[in-house]
Automatic annotation (TrEMBL):
Recorded name of the encoding gene: AK3
CDD domains: ADK
UniProt keyword Kinase, yes or no: yes
Record text about domains: Consists of three domains, a large central CORE domain and two small peripheral domains, NMPbind and LID, which undergo movements during catalysis. The LID domain closes over the site of phosphoryl transfer upon GTP binding. Assembling and dissambling the active center during each catalytic cycle provides an effective means to prevent GTP hydrolysis.
Protein name: GTP:AMP phosphotransferase AK3, mitochondrial
Domain of life: Eukaryota
InterPro entries in the cross-refs: Adenyl_kin_sub, Adenylat/UMP-CMP_kin, Adenylat_kinase_CS, Adenylate_kinase_lid-dom, ADK_active_lid_dom_sf, AK3/Ak4_mitochondrial, P-loop_NTPase
Region (LID): 126-163
SUPFAM superfamilies named among the record's database cross-references: Microbial and mitochondrial ADK, insert 'zinc finger' domain, P-loop containing nucleoside triphosphate hydrolases
């Protein structure tokens, strides 16, 4: 689908909700540029930029990266994209980050993946990661071609410490507490669209149909 007007979207969902998979499908089907806050964070920490060093010290001390630092980082990457359509993943996580984004850009839609916590717990505990790239595999529905090895580099996969059942429960609770106000913020603006289910492959057709409708109406307005 060729976009005639800039379209900007945010995707939200707890860790393990299939957000990465859905994001990849959106960028492939609709040509949006995918920006992941995790990737941007990693790139800045690896490049030892001023913000990267600041964030690394927060993370090393077990603190959350301050809202203004996170907002500066993401907005700087968005500005570098210029006049293009994008899908933002992992940001905003707080209302103040959402406000900072709104001050600069108009968000057309917010896609919220609503997956039961029980399903996510099951998913995450069978999740293995290639740490250098951030590529994630799931033994149940997205296994590596060779067990225990990354498809691209052949390097070993590891299970993150935070994919243990106790930590997963804690992370999900913390996600809920932190992002509920953000969902409410976007709900009140009339741009929130929630998709519920337990399987990414069953949720995806609904997301795809919704975006087709949204983007068709966007293109018709331009025409």
């Amino acid at each position: 689908m060729v976009l005639q007007r800039i379209f900007r979207a945010v995707i939200m969902g707890p860790p393990g909700s299939g957000k990465g998979t859905v994001s990849a499908r959106i960028t492939k089907s609709f040509g949006l540029t995918h920006l992941s806050s995790g990737d941007i964070l990693r790139a800045n920490i690896n490049a030892k930029t001023e913000l990267g060093l600041l964030m690394k010290s927060c993370i090393d001390q077990g603190q959350l990266v301050p809202d203004d630092v996170m907002s500066r980082l993401i907005l700087s990457d968005l500005r570098a994209l210029g006049q293009s359509s994008w899908l933002l993943d992992g940001f905003p996580r707080t209302v103040s980050q959402a406000e900072a984004l709104d001050d600069t850009y108009s968000v057309d839609t917010v896609i919220n993946l609503n997956v039961p916590f029980q399903t996510i717990k099951q998913r995450l505990t069978s999740r293995w990661t290639h740490l250098p790239s951030g590529r994630v595999y799931n033994i149940d529905f997205n296994p590596p071609k060779v067990p225990g090895l990354d498809d691209v580099t052949g390097e070993p996969l590891t299970q993150r410490d935070d994919d243990t059942p106790e930590t997963v429960t804690r992370r999900l609770k913390s996600y809920e507490t932190q992002t509920e106000p953000v969902l409410e913020y976007y709900r009140s603006k009339g741009v929130l669209e929630t998709f519920s289910g337990t399987e990414t492959n069953k949720i995806w057709p609904h997301v795809e149909a919704f975006l087709h409708r949204r983007l068709t109406s966007v293109n018709q307005k331009v025409a």
